[in-house]
């Protein structure tokens, strides 16, 4: 089966100023949405590998190449391992609740703290002796920081009475039993521990936050946690209240999220709403080290290699810094995509960085192309890959610059697609009034255009196939759209699905329910159709069959692009992440494009 129409996406809410080799392992499947009408089909596996279904929230760095990670899905945390520095991941197991701290002593022995969830308790401590393939509950308690210096010996920070204070406890039997280690108590509702030896370590604590800030303190121990001396705090005057960068003390701005000391003198703190700050005098003075350009970072994990900070987990994205480079390179997700196009040999994916990447049947990259500046989308027409901008269609070719095929003789448009006979379809609108729209068709790749009649329908997106004719998302022109009172010039419109088999002379509504966000149409030459709107997926195997309707999970709430691969596998992109279904939309997994 070859696709005859390429996919696209648009949000219906509009503004009057313009339109808008992976390691083999178990397939990671999400909870199956319940179909409104039952029915599915069996499809063969198109891609191999397993990747986190939700953004990674924590990483434990064993080495520069071996990483462990967790991601929250429902009431449980999924646990993953990477053997190549975070490029590819394989699911290992599930831990009840949300993992809030990971601590691995070596590649096999590790501990995880889990907060409330199905089967979990507040601050529950889980232990693994096989690299995360299985976990056992070691102890229940109100733990919120752990640090193990051997497979059996470690210390923890636990809630104290009265609430809002904490104390230090220790274990010598792998967390089964604990005893008080220090007579000190600390004003804290959050804490992180980092030891460079069994005797020398640091503890960062934070009290109740307020107005985007919190009181933070850093303590040091030289006797294994028996006594602690304060090194710095937000009470010490700082040259900056934003955390970017202070000359001494700790910044008021941002929440404490990570701590890592690499030697007796050098340490790092990651901040939510802040950056990574560094000390070179055991915590007395601090300065900004990384991500100092803005204040919306959340650095939940810090990775160390050869005594140096080399990796950061920032807002679920793994960043790496190799050698003496001052640039942090994104490792995972490597790329985020706004559009997918199925080709005869695999997939072409349009990235937000202005490149098109080609992938074969095992999701391995085969080539990349640079698109023209301002590229809106890509098309596949009779084996040729095309990119279109606001005013031109360009031919993309490996090792060659894009060649302009034609200048678009349109005022403006919101999308383009290729029809079954090589015609190009689009929705044209006026720059002066984007509410005025037409379906336009070109038989010569955009050199000349014909407006197709839509009657009282204001088109949003359109596709074409031999089996279905024209299929259109559109609003019926009549009562005025609802205007957002708080945002003058923005309109909320209600969109329906229409079909025409006579090139627009007559239209019938083929889906009665309205939609606020039109995600995309994918029409195949054999009559299959996939339609995505709001959080609903409609599938129909042939022109005379009935639609099967599936309610999609909440993480697919932002429609972007949809494709049907030659073997029937469905692909969606939402917020830059690629999801796939190999059983006709019942189950969805996350795919990672390297």
Nutshell version of this structure?
The chain is mainly beta and 594 residues long. Helix content is 0%, strand content 48%.
The chain-level structural class is mainly beta
If helices are DSSP runs of H or I spanning 4 or more residues, what is the number of helices? Answer: 0
Biggest sheet details:
8 strands, antiparallel
Using the coordinates above, name the CATH class of the domain at 10-24 and 335-591: Mainly Beta
Indicate the CATH architecture of the domain at 10-24 and 335-591.
Answer: 6 Propeller
Quaternary = single chain
Q: What shape does the CA trace take?
A: elongated
Query: How many β strands by DSSP?
Result: 53
Architecture overview:
With 594 residues, the protein is mainly beta. The chain has a domain at 10-24 and 335-591: TolB, C-terminal domain (Neuraminidase, 6 Propeller). 0% of the residues lie in helices and 48% in strands. It has no helices and 53 strands. Strands 20, 21, 22, 23, 24, 25, 26 and 27 form an eight-stranded antiparallel beta sheet that branches. The protein has a five-stranded antiparallel beta sheet with strand order 1-46-47-48-49, with no helix packed on it. Strands 11, 12, 13, 14 and 15 form a five-stranded antiparallel beta sheet that branches. β4 and β5 (76-82) form a beta hairpin. It is elongated. The two termini are 26 Å apart. Residues 1-50 and 238-247 have low confidence and may be disordered.
